[in-house]
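Title: Request for sanity check on Folate-biopterin transporter 7 prediction

Description:
We are preparing a figure and want to confirm that the structure record we downloaded matches what your pipeline produces today. Could someone re-run it with the sequence below and paste the raw structure tokens into this thread? We only need the token string, no images.
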Amino acid sequence: MGSSSLHSDGNQVKKVLGLGYWVQGFRCFPWLAVIFFLKDGLSVDPSTLQILQNSANLPMVGKPLYGLLSDSIYIFGQHRLPYIALGAFLQALSWLVIANSPSTISIFTISIYLLLSNLGAAIAEVANDAIVAEMSKQPPSSTKNSQPSSSGNLQSFVWIASSVGGVLGNLLGGIFISRFAPQSMFLVFGLLLALQFFITISVSENSLGLPKSPSVGIKKQLSELLIALRKPEIAYSISWFAASYAIIPALTGTMFFYQTEHLQINSSVLGISKVFGQATMLLWGIIYNQYLKSVPSRKIISTIQAMMALLMVSDFFFVKGLYREIGVPDSLYVVIFSGFLEVLFFFKILPFSVLIAQLCPQGCEGSIMAFLMSAIAFAFIVSGYFGVALASYIKVTGTDFSGLGLGLLIQAACTILPIFWSSCIPDDVKSKAKKKD
């Protein structure tokens, strides 16, 4: 009887998290339309496009607040699912409004709606991440066949779910963007979010089998969060991880214009490139779960950082025409290498989230994971603004890309730097436990 109940709990958890992370991955579907809508419909330049994209992520920086609310305030006796439902509702509302707005919508107005959408996404992601952290800390004796919570099985599952959503979102996005108006893509995603909302409110949080923790006030929860963040292994590792992103000047807007305007790469090719990237994320989740869980997180993360720098140097050779001279078509390079580099930035998150879930104190899972994701979001925003400054310094515009090669080399050099301070990342918790034994 108990085993059957635990099995049912596991199925319900995977149902909620699988849908939540799948939708999270599928967000690339409307955002692909947003990029082309801003570029072609509203005629923004590369720097403005990058500023708008990064500024729209500002609600993600507020994740610690949403985590505190989720940890400390229960709604109808539940403290995770109501926040997922609220997040889905806010996203559905914003995308449906954008879908029904005129094509002459102003940049300011669409920016407000995109901020609202990302606010909803941030709230839902915090609750989803908190459930993953809570379930990952369950004792290994819950079932006879279960593996230790530190194994990262659930993290790998949600990573794969998100990647599957990304693959499908980019595949359909590449097809839709050349055949339908962006508003139709906004409408499809808005209806999907509405469906997620109704499915979420139909599930009882009691059926998830989450560990019971007493409801405490926000003040006490904030105090516990600050205590947790003072722990050197948490503070140093999160600081290093955020800095490893922030220090890199992102040139995404410039590369997008270079590929579409200078090289005349078709939108469907860019869609396929993103599909390839998401497919490698899916494969990464499977490989990590099967073969790399026992490898120290520091080693994996440092290796990924070095690979990022190597691919940026490869982009330098691409911009200089080296691959074209040896017979590699631009479109093939964009699909494989550009698609892979775009998602390689996120590869580090899986092993790092497994490590942080192990370090999270009991009852602070939502707050710590939210703080981590907030730090990452803020780092990406800083990286984006840093990239705009670099593009201005090397004098790259929507029509002049002569300085792009230098920018890519500077970007690669900045990416290498954090590796020299990777000792800030602690050894895995289970490794420390073995040493103590």
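Thanks, this matches our download. Residues 1-6, 140-151, 431-437 have pLDDT under 50 and may be disordered.
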